[in-house]
Amino acid sequence: MTEIKPRELPPKSNFIKWYNSVLKLADIADKRYPIKGTFVWLPYGVKLMRNIKEHWDKLFQESGISEILVPLFVSRKNAEANKKWYEGFQKNLYSAVLPTGKSQFILRPTGEPAMYPLFSLWIKDYGLPLRVYETVSSYRYESRTTHTLIRDREITFWYEIHTAHKTKKESEEEAQTHLEIIRKIWKYLSIPPIVVNKPPYEVFPGAVGAIEAYTILPDGRLLENGSINILGQAYSRIYDITYMDEEGKKQYVWQICTGNGARYLAAVIALHGDDRGLCLPPTIAPVQCIIVPIMQKKSKQEVEAECLKLKEKLREAGIRVEIDLRENITPGEKFYQWEIKGVPVRIEMGPREIQKKCLTVFRRDLLTRETVESDKIIEYLNGLMSDIGATLENRVKKLFDSKVKDFDTIEDAFKWVRKGGVAKVSWCGEQPCYERICETEQAIEAIGTLLETEKKHECIVCKKETTNRTLVSKIY
Amino acid sequence: MTEIKPRELPPKSNFIKWYNSVLKLADIADKRYPIKGTFVWLPYGVKLMRNIKEHWDKLFQESGISEILVPLFVSRKNAEANKKWYEGFQKNLYSAVLPTGKSQFILRPTGEPAMYPLFSLWIKDYGLPLRVYETVSSYRYESRTTHTLIRDREITFWYEIHTAHKTKKESEEEAQTHLEIIRKIWKYLSIPPIVVNKPPYEVFPGAVGAIEAYTILPDGRLLENGSINILGQAYSRIYDITYMDEEGKKQYVWQICTGNGARYLAAVIALHGDDRGLCLPPTIAPVQCIIVPIMQKKSKQEVEAECLKLKEKLREAGIRVEIDLRENITPGEKFYQWEIKGVPVRIEMGPREIQKKCLTVFRRDLLTRETVESDKIIEYLNGLMSDIGATLENRVKKLFDSKVKDFDTIEDAFKWVRKGGVAKVSWCGEQPCYERICETEQAIEAIGTLLETEKKHECIVCKKETTNRTLVSKIY
To answer: Which ipTM score applies to this complex?
Structure first.
């Protein structure tokens, strides 16, 4: 499916409007589906998301984590068995009702109550450590404002890694392995995430700790973007997940679970895009290079033939390349459409280029044109692709730096947050102080302790000395 | 996850018992999930199914059909709008209930009532023909006996192609395109499907016609395995799917929808497997070649080094190869485990092979060993892989031939069916005669008109002359 009509995009400074428009105009999501909090993935969006998913599949499997697929229906009994989990999700649960009117199941909001009752069986079959993941859709009846890819009621392309270990130490090492993998995914997306340790009163229901990644969106709001939950033995004691130790004694396992999904794409769209639409890292772009022929009637045949030759050459070099031969629209319109779709590189070729044995290469990130000798094009493009990745990452770093400012008083911090900024403050880590730096009604929250170590400061609330720093901002 | 313990498989003559055992022992499906009609896909099963899915993705996309993803929740109103569809599925529908107790949605049993209300919008955006597909899980509360991958209540890896066309003729050509694609998928799986035209009283609710593929399972039962539904304008009139013709007049589109999924894998398992377990076509085998070192303590280092070299060589040649270096089990146990998993080729290498510069190559389909010169191994394996594919396909052809016998009387036909056979009979195509050659209580059914043309015969019921032939058998 290729869109025919030209379309209009609001400026990115009007962030949410821009975001919703770009989702439709770049053929990512159609929000006209008649059920709130759900949408249709359009063809370009599916390709883009699959490129991200293929990368996490590769990283998980290289790390020895095996893919499984667990049913959507979860026995209500198994869900209720885990009181903290059930209390945490109760308000968000969809039930599945049979045609007979019976309602024994809930629809999976997260995987634990579906998977963990089988974990002891799998430990018997496969031994320890047990390391599995699934990529599924999950369902949560969200009462907060929904935003496509950011907070949906049908959460698509959602991965969850679940692991079980003999010792606490091994499970902690596993959490670090997950963090390394997550950092690799973000690197692939040219985005440097902000990583924090969550305080114990702000973790996944029943967990004993958590590491979380965040991104700052262009409107200054923080978006939680992937979490590693340290479950300790809390869940293994509930679901009786055990193994026999060397003395034949039953022992509970130590567990880690880690999840994220389409929010990766939300960050890619929001952080790299500009007033002209998407701007994709070449790693995940469904089309890395678009060739647009520039010609009059008399040069048509020659130009098209040269363009097709070039396409073949690029394809052989492993570049995802397309050629736009549509005749009913002008080159300018083609430029516009491929720019909305964020294609990293455009090659323009006309009689002038053919004559001079060169190519006009446009890069989407900087909106600049270069003339490149035809016989050096592959080398040039390979360099360009990695340069675009680095340029995008630097731009996001700068954006984050411009949003984050240090503050010593809550008043000044909140003032900055209300202006669309992110406040960095010192904070002792205690719950009463945490509650003072959040304003739930305005969705202002602190995100936990930044992983970076800092020199000693005073807690912005109680003035106790601390090395902990956190970010405070509005949250999606 | 790699299974440690040896396990027992019943003989294939005890088909359903064998089938269920092989699903677990080959790490395809775990049926211990506590909800009837659902199961957990295990790692080897996921890999295997993904290899099949990747092939249909490739074929659909090469044909210009675009992948989308439509929500699971379907508005009850949109479902009820289509009376025939709703009547057809009513008994099988799961409802989704919100935490508030409201029940406005059903869970998708098929895609039409979810997709078609958006089709007019997409036609405006993208023009005609509209050709899309999705691969999803669908949900049907089946009252018939469930069998993993054959009839599940959670139908995983289910693809649906939906297309809309300006003319009846174009839609009929589309149906033929789908049939060609389906034949390519079956070829890839080394299985020759049986294809029929369904009589109009046996089609998808509301459709005007259907082409269906069937496979015969080893117990002589027929398994419907993929259908192409010719919807005519029945659905476009209900969901108001229209376009403007050249005179500016509103016209209803002509539609085709085509679906299948995990039943491909059910057929692969059931038809190619044997008393030792799975037997996979190399096209889809997650591991095409397993290298097992044969060694004593003193030769360990040398043999392992040679095995690793060989693995690298095979991997570079594009072969999916693994090496089994486990030390806690014997080569015999390794053979047994990889045979259950259906790995097409095993290479055994020990000091004898290294000395003679040869390799011992075992093929899973024929259970035979050959000695091959080391420096000819790539060429040999490439030939072997395609030979295994052809051998498997021929074996299935022979199995089908042995099951199907011609009959002139209903009595004899049913006798053969009750013995586990498939009866081929002539049949005029009329509904009263159709009903006479089915016995719903015993699940004996006719499957429609075989595509092959035949000379004239008499209808087995009414004795009218006809060229129609059909198969009658028990149905899964």
So the answer is: 0.96
